[in-house]
Amino acid sequence: MEEEQVGEEYLFKIVVIGDSAVGKSNLLSRFARDEFDHNSKATIGVEFQTQVVEVDGKEIKAQVWDTAGQERFRAVTSAYYRGAVGALVVYDISRNTTFVNIKRWLDELNTHCDTTVARMLVGNKCDLENIRDVSVEEGKNLAEEEGLFFIETSALDSTNVKTAFEIVIREIYKNVSRKVL
Ligand code: GDP
Ligand code: MG
Question: How far is CA 154 from CA 106, 124, 146, 159, in A?
Fold first, then answer.
């Protein structure tokens, strides 16, 4: 065993799931490049983006995966989930159906990943307060029932996007450190 820990590296695979057009790709581009894309290009996208985040002085590479439109055909493959240690499960606060479908996404996540995956329920588009269709309370309650973290975000105006990813990354890091000890 090497005693030196200098080269220690962490790479965490995080998946972003949820119905089409809830803002998954924009959450990712806001997190990784601080960009917002006003045109929805559901089928075009990169597989994943890597972003370095520092936790407790450790450099952590978050490899965040985007469904890149597969979800429209309910064809998110098992390869997409393979090796994931974190998940953002996203709905759109202005469209209740996307919130109702969260249960289905959690079922799918559970069939592919074990329960140790760090999960965050994300109510995106919180800038659309005037057409809100899912209350903050409903989001919180579901998260509590299902044992998820909960946050509302806006990829459009940047609200809580970084925080959402950072909470998940910190939780994964905690799980990993626990295993090592
Ligand atoms: P995806 O299909 O889940 O990847 O969703 P996209 O990221 O492609 O976004 C779908 C649509 O919602 C696009 O027209 C985006 O511009 C819009 N959108 C995404 N995030 C937000 C947000 O936080 N606020 C608002 N108002 N629109 C958003
Ligand atoms: Mg997309």
Answer: 22, 5, 23, 5
pLDDT in the model for residue 86: 97
Instruction: Decide whether any atom of ligand 1 lies within 6 Å of the 132 Cβ.
Output: no
Q: Ligand 2 centroid to 64 CA: how many Å?
A: 13
- Global confidence as pTM: 0.91
The band of 34, judged by pLDDT with boundaries at 50, 70 and 90, is: confident
Q: Is the CB of 29 under 6 A from ligand 1?
A: no
Pocket residue to mutate for ligand 1, from 40, 71, 95, most atoms within 8 A of Cβ = 40
C-alpha distances in Å from residue 42, one per residue of 19, 71, 89: 11, 9, 17
ipTM of the shown complex: 0.99
